[in-house]
Design goal:
Belongs to the LytR/CpsA/Psr (LCP) family. The protein is built from nine helices and 16 strands. With 366 residues, the protein is an alpha+beta fold. The longest helix has 20 residues.
Length: 366
């Protein structure tokens, strides 16, 4: 049985105050799925989400992968850079050792229990903003590859989404990283969406600058026309939210649009540039808690194990914005239950069609 967070009002759903958001709606049936007691503010999977205070934002965009395995892996690498893609299954222990140059598996008389490629893969991608002097999870994305590795999805999770953090009560989802690092954040996200996070990849924002300087300028289509970004301009573009009409909702769309721009730049980049991008990433990435050479090996293993596939960008359903009981401005969860069912049943493609998710191109990026 879920506990319900307390909010001061629910202006985003009905304009009334003094009651829990969506307590004005019909009662919900209980669910047996294991997930966080996020909030009772959930919407039916109709594709029309309650978001009257900022603009409605749930988005998706499909980008076809390039034809060659080398290019596909390069595009996956860009995804890691922007915390918007990754891959791999169970990693061999040898990959954790910087001194290991090759791996020769030990003979075994028994066959493995199952083929890792036959299971969906889920990777949590976290962008860290260290500008304030302390690490903060500023970008949170959940990458999912289906069992056949034919399709992957990348879901943006708004950092201010109000959830239950295991062992810490209710709070914004990005607070989980401050409380317990990537492990607690992975546990929190996994419980919300009824999925097991197989790997975590964290990256600091300096990588945004490095990639744009190597490949730049990066061209991004916006409401005011194409803009070219390089260096600090790229970082400012993906971090800005105060000046945007939709605040963090528009900022998420900017991040997705920037990723699309980098992918376009990689398609025309030569092998030398792609290798330089890889070296730049290795300096800023942590994979499953490992840094340096160990992280580099793990990253290479992840990239090598997942072939390129059509990738869909979308955002976790939300119910607009509201206020917590202690006065914080928060993002209210939307129809988390149906999405969690899709993760649990490996039916994200069907879920995206059911809710009628918008494409990235459906409206201009601010």
């Amino acid at each position: 049985m879920r506990s319900s967070p307390r909010w001061a009002d629910c202006r985003s759903c009905c304009g009334r105050t003094g009651h829990r958001p969506h307590s004005c709606g019909p009662p919900r049936s209980p669910s047996t799925h294991r997930r966080s007691s996020t909030a009772t503010a959930r919407m039916p999977a109709t594709g029309r989400r309650c978001a009257t205070r900022p603009p409605r934002e749930s988005t998706s965009s499909s980008n076809a992968s390039a034809s060659s395995p080398t290019m596909r892996r390069a595009l996956l690498l860009v995804g890691v850079l922007l915390l918007a893609a990754c891959g791999g299954e169970e990693l061999p222990e040898q990959a954790a050792s910087p001194a290991t140059e090759s791996v020769s598996p030990s003979p075994s008389e028994s066959a493995p229990d199952s083929d890792p490629q036959s299971e969906p893969l889920t990777v949590l991608l976290v962008g860290l903003d260290e500008d304030t002097g302390s690490q903060r999870a500023d970008v949170i994305l959940l990458m999912r590859a289906d069992a056949e590795r034919e399709h992957s999805s990348i879901m943006s999770i708004h950092r201010d989404t109000w959830v239950t953090i295991p062992g810490h009560g209710e709070g914004k989802v990005n607070a989980a990283y401050a409380f317990g690092g990537d492990e607690l954040l992975a546990d929190t996200v996994g419980s919300i969406y009824s999925t097991t996070v197989d790997h975590t990849v964290t990256l600091d924002f300096d990588a945004f600058v490095a990639v744009s300087e190597i490949l730049g300028p990066i061209t991004v289509d916006t409401a005011d026309g194409p803009v070219e970004l390089v260096g600090g301009e790229a970082l400012d573009f993906v971090r800005e939210r105060a000046a945007l009409p939709g605040g963090d909702f528009d900022r998420v769309r900017r991040q997705q649009a920037y990723l699309a721009g980098v992918a376009d730049a990689l398609r025309s980049a030569g092998p030398g540039q792609r290798a330089e991008v890889m070296r730049a990433v290795a300096e800023h990435v942590t994979v499953d808690g490992r840094r340096g050479a160990a992280a580099h090996l793990l990253l290479l293993d992840l990239l090598a194990r997942v072939e390129g596939s059509e990738t869909t960008f979308f955002s976790s359903p939300h119910g607009g914005t509201g206020w917590s009981h202690d006065g914080q401005s928060i993002v209210l969860p939307g129809d988390i239950d149906s999405l969690a069912d899709a993760y649990e049943g490996d039916t994200l493609d069907e879920w995206l069609e059911t809710v009628g998710a918008e494409t990235l191109d459906s409206r201009p990026v601010e």
